[in-house]
TrEMBL record:
Gene source species: Romboutsia maritimum
Keyword Cell membrane tagged: yes
BP GO terms, sorted: response to antibiotic
Keyword vocabulary terms for this entry: Antibiotic resistance, Cell membrane, Membrane, Transmembrane, Transmembrane helix, Transport
Location(s), subcellular: Cell membrane
Keyword Magnesium listed: no
UniProt topology in membrane: Multi-pass membrane protein
GO molecular function: antiporter activity; xenobiotic transmembrane transporter activity
Family: Belongs to the multi antimicrobial extrusion (MATE) (TC 2.A.66.1) family. MepA subfamily.
InterPro entries, alphabetized: MATE_fam, MATE_MepA-like, MATE_MepA_subfamily, MdtK-like
Protein name: Multidrug export protein MepA
GO cellular component, as recorded: plasma membrane
Length: 477
């Protein structure tokens, strides 16, 4: 099909613009689901600071749900791109239906387990007696919507890999706008508080999931949906899980970090420190979501060309992606360091909470300008199918370095030690990722050299064979 062919022939710059812009819009919109909730919740009259802290306690659970969405969505999308690059279209079609089956099955399991053990989980995740009521009101509704949450995320990735990034972005925009409108109506007009925010989120995700399903069921998709493919293919599921394991592990690690951080924040700064972290992570999300969009836009380009062994195009796609990511992150750093009061004021204007948040924000995002190397680099390694290395790089920044920092630094620096842990982890992880990337890219020269030698050897054999035939003909004459 045309969309497959252009991945290997069209200008890399144009392809990245075509795929990344819609993906950036989609990821920003996806991030706004949570950010908008937090803005509205933080401004609920009288209870805003405690409500946003209660929401912060639920973040590890929401991250776990997202982890399963990424496990299926990214694993499916990456394998679709690779299969198309290899010319295996039937396998690509099977991956679409298999992702639907996996999303529904895993979503149901999460809902059941989450609701049964909600109280115990929330207390372990840092809830106090004051914040538990807000956390439980919100997360029980979110858990009920686990199926549509995971399904909408995974199908959105599949639609992008299917060659329809604009449709993917459009669907996400519809969902986000619906969420914003419902947030306002349910929280303030119907006075439903934090429960209204959760209902708004689930309803908007349900709309996103149904539209995404309709894209495939209507027959308008490039890769056609077939009911028979809903039956899980063991080998394809293994491939999905193998590729999706890296982002899945990264999100689980993020959840683990949130749990440890919540408990440390509670010990060294009280409930409001958890609320501050909720605000800081929301702001970080605003700047990081475009980078994840760039990753998603470059993924099919890198995956297809790597599968087709077009290494020059692969390298160019990554370098342009890294440049764009760095520019965005430098802009984010400027805003965070110069105008922190304005951006934090969107979430809550409580004086004590703002003071904690401003100080934390400036320290926490100190390494923002350089982490594009780490984030895009991990995506690059993942996109070429090296799942184990990608997972290691993800865990390096999220677990191996960050968790010890959170546990050790506060013992010496108190609350500020928790804020310092992220930039320290970012710096070391970025340095190591850069080394891995350089080695990977340099290895392509050896592959190209071997292929060149094989071609020359074949040409030599053909010439010698032709000369032998001509000699035999001359002898016969």
């Amino acid at each position: 099909m045309k969309d497959e062919q252009i991945l290997g022939t069209e200008s890399i710059g144009r392809l990245l613009f075509k795929y990344s812009i819609p993906a950036i819009i989609g990821m920003v919109v996806n991030g706004l689901y949570n950010v908008v909730d937090r803005i509205f919740i933080g401004n609920i009259p009288g209870v805003g600071p405690l409500a946003i802290t209660g929401l912060g306690v639920t973040m590890p659970i929401m991250t776990i749900i997202l982890a399963f969405g990424m496990l299926i969505g990214i694993g499916t999308a990456t394998n679709i791109s690779i299969k198309l690059g290899q010319g295996k279209k039937d396998d690509a079609k099977k991956l679409i239906a298999n992702s639907i089956t996996l999303s529904i099955g895993i979503g149901i399991i999460i809902t059941i387990i989450g609701i049964i053990f909600a109280d115990t989980i929330l207390k372990l995740f840092g809830a106090s007696e004051k914040t538990l009521v807000y956390a439980k009101e919100y997360i029980n509704i979110i858990l009920i919507g686990s199926v549509v949450n995971i399904l909408s995320f995974s199908l959105n990735h599949a639609i992008r890999a299917d060659g329809s990034p604009k449709i993917s972005a459009g669907i996400m925009i519809i969902g986000c706008l619906t969420n914003i409108v419902l947030d306002y109506i349910l929280i303030f007009k119907f006075d439903m508080g934090i429960k209204g925010a959760a209902i708004a989120t689930v309803l908007s995700q349900a709309i996103t999931a149904f539209i995404s399903l309709y894209y495939y069921l209507s027959g308008k998709s490039n890769l056609k949906f077939e009911k028979t493919n809903l039956k899980l293919d063991k080998e394809l599921v293994k491939l999905v899980l193998a590729i999706g394991l890296s982002p899945f592990a990264m999100q689980l690690a993020a959840s683990m970090v949130q749990i440890i951080a919540n408990n440390s924040l509670k010990s060294y700064g009280g409930d409001l420190a958890i609320g501050a972290m909720t605000t800081i992570s929301s702001i970080a999300m605003i700047f990081l979501m475009p980078i994840f969009g760039i990753n998603q836009g470059s993924q099919p380009i890198i995956g297809f060309n790597y599968g087709a062994k077009k290494f020059k195009r692969v390298k160019k796609a990554y370098l342009i992606s890294l440049t764009a990511a760095t520019i965005i992150l430098c802009g984010g750093t400027f805003i965070v360091q110069i105008f922190p009061e304005i951006i934090i004021g969107l979430f809550n204007k409580d004086k004590e909470l703002m003071n904690i948040s401003i100080n934390g924000l400036r320290i926490y995002l100190l390494m923002l300008p350089i982490i594009g190397i780490s984030i895009t680099g991990t995506n690059y390694i993942q996109s070429i199918g090296k799942a184990k290395m990608a997972m290691l790089l993800s865990l390096l920044r999220q677990v191996i370095l960050l968790i010890p920092s959170i546990l050790i630094l506060p013992k010496f620096f108190g609350l500020e030690g928790i804020w310092m842990s992220q930039p320290l982890s970012d710096f070391i992880a970025t340095f190591i990722t850069a080394i891995v990337l350089m080695r990977e890219i340099r290895s392509y020269k050896n592959i190209e050299l071997r292929e060149y030698e094989v071609i020359k050897e074949k040409e030599s054999i053909e010439i010698n064979s032709k000369m032998a035939i001509e000699s035999d003909v001359n002898n016969l004459i």
